[in-house]
Queue: 2 jobs
Job 1
Amino acid sequence: MSNTIRILMCPPDHYDVDYVINPWMEGNIHKSSKDRAVEQWQNLHNAIKDHAIVELVAPAKGSPDMVFTANAGLVLGDKAVVSRFYHPERQGEEPYFKAWFEGNGFTVYELPKDLPFEGAGDALFDREGRWLWAGYGFRSELDSHPYLAEWLDTEVVSLRLIDERFYHLDTCFCPLSGGYLLYYPPAFDAYSNQIIEMRVPEEKRIIIDEPDAVNFACNSVNINSVVVMNKTSVELKQRLEKVGFTVVQTTLSEFLKAGGAAKCLTLRVNEPIREEVHANVSVESRVIHLEGHLLDAGIMNQALDLIVEIGGSFRVLNFNLGIERQSVSNADVRVSAPSHQIMEDIMTQLIELGALSKTEEILNAKTETVTMAGVSPDDFYVTTIYPTEVRVNDQWVKVQGQRMDGAIVVDPTTLTADCKLLRDLRVGEQVVVDVEGIRTTRKVESRDKRGTQEFSFMGAGVSSERRVELVVEQIAWELRKIKEQKGKVIVTAGPVVIHTGGGQHLSHLIRAGYVHGLLGGNAIAVHDMEQNLMGTSLGVDMKKGIPVRGGHRHHLKVINTIRRFGSIKNAVEAGYLTKGVMYECVKQNIPFSLAGSIRDDGPLPDTQMDLIKAQQDYASILEGTDMILMLSSMLHSIGVGNMTPAGIKMVCVDINPAVVTKLSDRGSVESVGVVTDVGLFLSLLIQQLDKLNSAVSLTV
Ligand code: ARG
């Protein structure tokens, strides 16, 4: 027995479940028995008295949860950080606890008014005194942790809680003497679990299962080798005994109705200081600025959600809602993260949403030098499809050649910045690293524009069959407009276009001057020519829809013949190939690029088997494009998407909704997905164009 440990409790004179501020309280309002509560509390008091000195704070009327003294504050030596309750329901307790700390000789520290921190309920010292485990996610704010570190001069390890049943750290986590840790891992996010595992060796981790967790087994009072708790399974009891603990069970069912048990009802008020332990916080904070149609475009939700999902926390410092329909909103948000790595992950995604880091003076982008050709310094900023600017010599410089998945190379002497693929990096080049001094602009889509005849496509969405015709109408209208304005339309197409009978329609589009470049692979060309030379597509008769005897050899024969000609163009010029998609490309002088792959038969002489070369060809054909039609070719379309900056209209057609979603999910409204048979889509498109052009007759 040790009399040196002092524990603060509060008699349950006014205890009841009067409101709901955690899931345990739901359905329990005024359902607890006063007499039983008093008896259970008394039993706990007795159990603790056997091992420690119990001190009492006077209960206050109107503060039913004051029995949970763990939430009074956090104590170390003669310092006490008094709690700032998250819920107004408990804020009335603050002055009572503060008075008690002051009256008992503690130096009291108070957090800023709007910064919640719920005391020892969310902050538990490692029993060896090496550091403080601090929880956040429900009640306490991550931003309170640096204050704890500074005031108590201790290292703070932040852990994020993710299960609302375990809203306070002490409901699912209990450091025990000897470096043991009793805890319930599913209550924490992956990063926190990793931190716990790094700090506590496996043989010291006592992991509990859900049934024990919901009995609040982690909510234990540990006094030397004694562990006092509400209830434990036989198995857990044995595990604890095996490593030298004595388990004392004392029923606290009445308090469970309020979401608390043994540990919640106590506060250790003489935590010893370890001289060699000092402050060390890894919590990072920064303020970001967001501007645009933050609500309409869902940017605000996305930003706040991603901060929390990645493991940070936020506080909206101010939000100015655009008053008029057209006006933009802006917001300043303070973002906090438990480590530099997490802060960078969050910032990268926020930059993608158009956020700007709001430091007093805007810092120049950090760069590092390439020391190995084709390899970037680690930590490089990975580019997106959005127009990006980087800060060089105190000026914002626009990044040229914007595309996804590149690195940004800056030249401070010429004040230029270029998007470069890793493989193109040369020794000595300066690559932007970290997230400082980088901003992206998301086009502010005005409500007006979205509503008008402009290419609205009903926002970025995947259309169902019902809406296909409507979408096709808009695409036809847009194609015509681009043609009139002498714009550029590129098609990526897979062999399905031919198998579904879309070849004739695509040929038609090319012949009529709507297409200015074709991107595909070996297969589309092979099957297109097979159809036009032999009437089959992959051996299937295109008119009857049935396989032709020996048809599987057709496409190889075609490949062989074209190989003899030396190129598709030669075959056209020799009068051998007389119709079809490839024929029209040659005839209309439309550039095409066929990118090879491992499964290609032949390949055709035109197929580029050097993939780096093929990527370059694609990129050069795509330059200056206004619109891209992606027709049933996932691989080529994804490749194209990566090379294309935001702002270019994209239409992705595929029978598989998953493919369409994947392709059209670029977070910009200019892309639209159409889930339908591509042959049908093309035939509808031709019909629509015909309607629009009834004056100009299109002959097939
Ligand atoms: N009803 C109280 C609340 O929701 C219970 C507090 C339990 N205390 C604790 N340290 N887990 O705030």
Job 2
Amino acid sequence: MSEPSRTEIDALSEAEARAEMPSLIAKIEAANTAYHTHDAPEISDAEYDALKQRLAAIEAKFPALKSEQSPTEQVGGQLAEGFGKITHAIRMMSLANAFSDEEVTEFDESVRSFLGLKSDAKLNYTAEPKIDGLSLSIRYEKGKLIHAATRGDGAVGENVTENARTIDDIPTSIADAPDVLEVRGEVYMSHADFEALNSRNEAAGEKRFANPRNAAAGSLRQLDPKVTASRPLKFFAYAWGELSAPLAETQIEAIARLQSLGFQTNPLTELCDGPADMLAHYREIEAKRATLGYDIDGVVYKVNDLALQRRLGFRSTTPRWAIAHKFPAELAWTQLEGIDIQVGRTGALSPVARLTPVTVGGVVVSNATLHNEDYIAGRDSKGAEIRGGKDIRVGDWVQVYRAGDVIPKIADVDLARRPEDAVPYDFPTHCPRCGSEAIREEGDAVRRCTGGLICPAQAVEKLKHFVSRAAFDIEGLGAKQVEQFYEDGWIKEPADIFTLEERYGQGIQQLKNREGWGEKSARNLFAAIAEKRRIPLQRLIFALGIRHVGETSAGMLATHYGTWDAFETAMTQADCGQGPEWDDLISIDGVGETLATSVVTTFQQEAERASIDRLTAHLSVEEAEKPKSDSPVSGLTVVFTGTLEKMTRAEAKARAEALGAKVSGSVSAKTDLLVAGPGAGSKAKKAAELNIRVIDEDEWIALAGGA
Ligand code: IVH
């Protein structure tokens, strides 16, 4: 869309305003309909914002021209801002998956082993359908609905309170509830409602939703609650967040309590005696799946005793006390039309299958990952067969599957239908983008472009990573904009983002003439960039895009080093495989040799290093948060030895880590505390020599607050 010809508001006469307003209003209304009703925006948020700002400015100058029905007065006016954010009082976790009966048995074994329960000790689980919708957390205070938020990234979700209020299954006030009650569950759409909605949309010439999950998500995330109200959403409660008083002592009673408070809970929730019983219930639910009238994608098992759930606690993103047993993925046959090679930020050449589009589980699939060249060849580097050793050739009929939200994969190849002229795939030995040699390191299945920063594909992918949500997260600068700026030569590396205004501030004129940009959005972008000059250490380390350094490991590095200076100095001085800086790096729990080598070599590469220095010159890096300091063991390095009698080693370790302590396997000068049970041997001796405090299990429990 081109920008309307604009006279500055100050210079606008009333006659000009009168002439311009109807077209402005028409554009805003068309954009509203496209966005709210069709879920298919036709103009960018920035353009929409600019239109609305102009209308508001004209109305402010000529109040007599403003109508009561003006779009500036309508709900849903915060389109540009989107939803507000809500920080969850307690993080919203996801679930680990099991795909086979064996994995369910292993789950039971791991729970028993963590808790130190014998294999014949009684241990109950609940089993209930896993609803395929989107999760929602609803907060009640003194029985009144206060707010409702989507899961978001688990820590912060979107404020969808007004939309949640329109859902019949969600009470807006509850009698006899604890003062603080956060109810969590799944928003979903029934098959019947989904079909009816799609028929309605189709009759009105609007787009169909691909599946009920998308329809539910699109409906809940509507900026206009009136639209949500017109969409038939439902809600099953299955969990909770913050509570001022416990709901019950067991999962099954807690669910019953949620039901008595006025929530819908799933009628197929059952108490099971152990794995055999759980698997039997899984089969029963699977058999009913087609007739339930709503989508489910597996069965969730949860330890029934809530005291045991507390002891089991959480890994970084999933509880130890629950698992989702997924149904087998749906399969479909289609033809492989070609193989495209994508180049990632670390130079990895990733082959992607181009497929004749086919519907799998309600979603049209037109490409699938082919992982790497061994995968295409049907044998891994050790010679082990993949898909029975069948290679994949262009022209082949292949069977594709989707499991949850993951990218489609290839399950099988039909050799009987292989075209006669199909030839084995020749994996490129040079980068398709920059022509540099692409090599495979020993033991690595991935072939990588050696072009480094000179490879445009790597540079762009690095930039996309840099601005991504868990990294710098710059409003208005997403993957699409980064690509555009890169192509124009305005941003070649992360540091360029922070000199953009200095170099192109005057070029706003140039920017605003491009699709998706107006003067306001350009100014907003500069403001959003300026805001991110101050950045938490963890985000910066993650944003650098160092191979093997994900969000979690970036967090561990940040916590360990505390400041950018300390991290940078240590990495500059570190040698791979030796020396005190290397030993210190490798001593971090969760940092292995592969990750450590990758970080150290990044700082050794001159070009990379110079690029990092250019970037950090523009930043003020916040110190990492210290580990929880409200516990007497936080920040301490603890070693457990001998036999623990009241808890297992795994439980003791998890508890110590949850309290901010670091657990190490061996005693050294860095050890602060040795917890020694009966039978402690050489470690206790060494601790005594080093004058390290030694306590027994009971003293540890007193210190760490028991189980
Ligand atoms: S329990 C701390 N129960 O599945 C555990 N989740 O893959 C909280 N889901 O994010 C989740 N049905 O959105 C639980 N009966 C059920 C569920 C369920 C669907 C969703 C939920 C979660 C996702 C994890």
